[in-house]
Amino acid sequence: MLFDGYDTGGFHDEMFCADGTPRSCARLLFERIASVGDEELRRYQQAAEQALFRMGITFNVYGDEAGTEKIFPFDIIPRIVAADEWAQIERGLRQRVHALNVFINDVYHEQKILKDRVIPTEVVLSAKSFRKSCVRLRPPKGTWCHITGTDLVRHGDGKYYVLEDNLRCPSGVSYVLQNREIMKRTFPQIFDRSNVRPVGDYPSHLLKTLQDIAPPVYGSPVVALLTPGIHNSAYFEHAFLAKFMGVELVEGRDLVVMNGHVMMRTTKGFERVDVIYRRIDDDFLDPSTFRPDSLLGVPGIMDVYRAGRVALANAPGTGIADDKVIYAYVPKIIKYYLGEDAILPNVPTYVCWDEAERMHVLDNLEKFVVKAANESGGYGMLVGPHSTSEQREKFKAAINADPRNYIAQPTLALSRVPVIVEDHFEGRHVDLRPYVLYGKDIFVLPGGLTRVALKKGSLVVNSSQGGGSKDTWVLSC
Amino acid sequence: MLSRVADSLYWMSRFVERAENVARFIDVNTWLSLDLPEGYQEQWRPLISTTGDDALFAKHYAAASRSNVIQFLTFDTHNPNSILSCITAARENARAVRQYITLETWEQINRFYLAVQNRARSSARGFPPGVDFFSDVTTASHLFLGTLYATMSHNEGWHFCRLGRLIERADKTSRILDTKYYLLLPSLDAVGTPYDDLMWAAVLRSTSAFEMYRKRFQQISPDKVVEFLVLDREFPRAIHHCVVSAEASMHAISGSPFRTFSNPAEQQLGRLCAELNYIQVREIINRGLHEFLDDIQARLNLVGDAIHNSFFALQPVPVMPQYPAAGSDA
Q1: Which comes out higher in pLDDT, residue B254 or B131?
Q2: pLDDT per residue over B92-109, tens digit each?
Q3: Interface ipTM
Q4: Each residue of A322-365: pLDDT tens digit?
Q5: Which of A38, A329, B65, B325 could link A307 by a cystine bridge, Cβ 3.0 to 4.6 Å?
């Protein structure tokens, strides 16, 4: 009985109520795990890790141990999301993604929301991710953001909050599918009568989304996934998605603009490409429009895109809605375009651009999490309660030097889940990243990536900062 | 298919085949040395000549001792043709086409790599590989070949894999024959001694040809060994068989009918096939085996270059007249 002495530590635990009894949605899972011996459970955990090595789901380690490879840590105890909670999350995500798409389109066209002073014009136009070259751009079917991975967290009050919108190239969905696969291989009996909603059809939905936005062509459109290449940390995911959609995985050097079309270099000459799911950032997409030093992109691709002869997912310029300062205004954005209140609330956010808010942040830095507006992956971040005074001074200076680039949020009591630590369970903080597709319709994958901060007490779940992941079970009833 | 993908498939396959051949050379030489009487020098240097890396070896090692040669050919990362280097390169190529090859194929090559990598680590800790390791490498290569054969559609990509493998194999068979033949020639005086027989059997074993040779010719004689390894149509490691099968894959890729060609690679390969179809072993010996094999290797290199230029290399973008883009704002 490994759960003996498990302590929820005053946090919201995804598996247990405050009094230590399993939540009703987790009761079956609890019983299953409790019925498995310590030794056996640890063997499953090892088998899962070995499977990851064998399947080559690894990343390269640089520096001291160059040449060695590591797996992203995986914990075999699933994280459960009850059916009614998920229904709420799904409604909230649909609403949010819909509103953000309307917002992006507005920002690059009429800018009504700026004229109506719902968001300060200066905040939008000063965003690094605002692309002048995207003004008046008309992406196919008017949709800008086709693939979103929104970061949610559950606070001590038991409510889900949106922590970040990732609308550029959100990654991690392959781990959602792979984690499920590993669980099925190593611990199949745990699924029996569990009513877990399947996630394996994601590639089909993604392919359909990409085909939906294709320019008119004879026959079926040619879809390709554009990767920065084998050395990119998300390369596994790029290959995984291309494989399971059955589309070409291309690098910039495989593509060339010819006679107004994007073409791939094949063994039989040049072949047209109609839709590109690009997993490289705007900056690198087209050296003749964005960063001229980019070797990853395709010179001239933006001209073809503007001419409507190739579709790009996500559309260039979507990053504007990804800016962490814009994030603070999303509830207002939803209200403005849809006339509704946000179903999923934001984490209260202080925008340092605003003088009063900045003063409050600077005076209480040790209480806040400070984030740079245009960074991701857990970089450019200060976790106030865990910071040294030296780090705080550094951030103070940075905020004063460039207030537009910083926001601050109160430190949240992220919910926890049990993970296996040697011979017992301990609670660790988690977030949840569900994936939303937007082609003709909106599709929300019933599942998501649960990232775990494996370091005791840590609130940072990013894999670059010692985070791992878990299979995420959305229950059907 | 994408040129870059075809390129990676071709090299993935070539590198696995190369690793297998190196393992086989070491394996056979090890067994052979167990049989040799005192006074016979163990022959390790010719193994290096087989992969053509004499200069590189001389740069890193003083003597061609057994342990030096094995280290150089097995785990030395300075040597691009060591088993470890080959498998690392094969896996990197496989990784680059991970979306194209089947999961089974990828997992096999990954497992292969991890096993060699692990063995290299324990070797570095002072436990050199035994003969088991080398036969494991051969088996892993066969498993790779089998998964490729049984799980992938026999489409263009598969034919590029096969092309790479067969060209590599033809080259290696010619090299082993070349080095061993010269090594063994002096002992022709001692025809009939048990060691002569053993040596020739070793040449055959290096290419897994021993059993099949026996079935075809029974008695071992140098000319017959040459005939079998160069001209046999049915033995899968014979040069002739490799070249004919490579030609079949080439035509499957290009779609052009047999006896015609639509690119320089097909032309080169066709010429080589035509010659091997009709030449007799007497002619080869009279012309000089070494010269003949040298020529085969040179022509295989030409085929390799032509494959690269025809299918993998960046083609110039044709300049076309510019039309106004449909639906543009302008």
Answers
A1: B254
A2: 999 999 999 999 999 999
A3: 0.86
A4: 899 999 999 999 999 999 999 999 999 999 999 999 999 999 99
A5: B325
| Interatomic CA distance for residues B309 and A50, integer angstroms | 41
Q: How far apart are CA A402 and CA A405, in angstroms?
A: 6
- pLDDT reported for residue A67: 60
Task: Give Cα A303 to chain centroid, integer Å.
Answer: 29
Pairing outcome for strands A368-372 and A381-383: antiparallel
DSSP string for residues in A184-237:
HHH-GGGGTT--BPP-TTHHHHHHHHHHHTPPP-SSSPPEEEE-S-TTSTTHHH
Distance CA A304, CA B95 (A): 30
What residue type is assigned to position A427 of the chain? G
Alpha helices in chain B (DSSP H): 3-35, 45-51, 54-60, 66-74, 83-96, 103-124, 131-151, 156-184, 194-206, 210-217, 222-226, 239-254, 264-278, 281-287, 289-307
Q: Which chain B residues touch A233 with a CB distance below 8 Å?
A: none
- Region class of A101: left (phi > 0), else alpha (psi between -120 and 50), else beta: alpha
A306 contacts in chain B (CB < 8 Å): 325, 328-329
Return the CA Rg of chain A.
23
Q: What is the pLDDT of residues B20-31, one digit of tens each?
A: 999 988 888 887
What distance in Å separates residue A259's CA from the closest CA in chain B? 6
The reply to whether residue B311 touches residue A267, judged by beta carbons under 8 angstroms, is yes
Asked if the model's pLDDT at residue B329 lies above 50, the reply is no
Q: What sign results for the dihedral spanned by CA atoms A358, A361, A362, A368? A: negative
Contact A264 B2 (CB under 8 A): yes
Q: Please report how many Cα atoms fall inside a 13 Å half-sphere around the Cα of residue A77, on the Cβ side.
A: 28
Which secondary-structure segment (H or E) carries A92? helix A83-107
Please report the domains of chain A, with CATH numbers, ordered by start residue.
Answer: 1-215+310-344+426-477 (no CATH), 350-410 (3.30.1490.270)
Q: What is the pTM of this model?
A: 0.90
Q: In terms of Cα–Cα distance, which of B89, B66, B67 is closest to B77?
A: B89
Taking CB atoms and an 8 Å cut-off, how many pairs form between chains A and B? 89
- pLDDT digit string (tens) for A203-216? 999 999 999 999 99
For A352, the 3-state DSSP assignment is coil
- Residue in chain A nearest B320 by alpha carbon: A259
Q: Give A68's Cβ-side CA count (13 Å radius).
A: 7
What the block records as the tokens of B295 is 């020529």
Does residue B219 register a pLDDT over 90?
A: no
Integer angstrom CA distances of residue A253 from A275, B59, B190, B208: 17, 37, 60, 41
Question: What's the CA angle centered on B141, arms B140 and B145, to 5 degrees?
Answer: 115
Sequence-separated (6 or more) residues with CB below 8 Å from residue B141: B16, B17, B19, B20, B23, B112
Closest CA to B23 of B223, B172, B240: B172
**Minimum-distance CB partner of B3 among A225, A236, A267:** A267
Angle, CA of A462, A468 and A474, to the nearest 5°: 100
| Residues forming beta bridges with residue A431, ordered by sequence position | A451
Query: Is residue A151 within 8 Å of residue A164, measured between CB atoms?
Result: yes
Q: Which residue has the tokens 């791939």?
A: A264
Residue B97: both structure tokens together: 């086409």
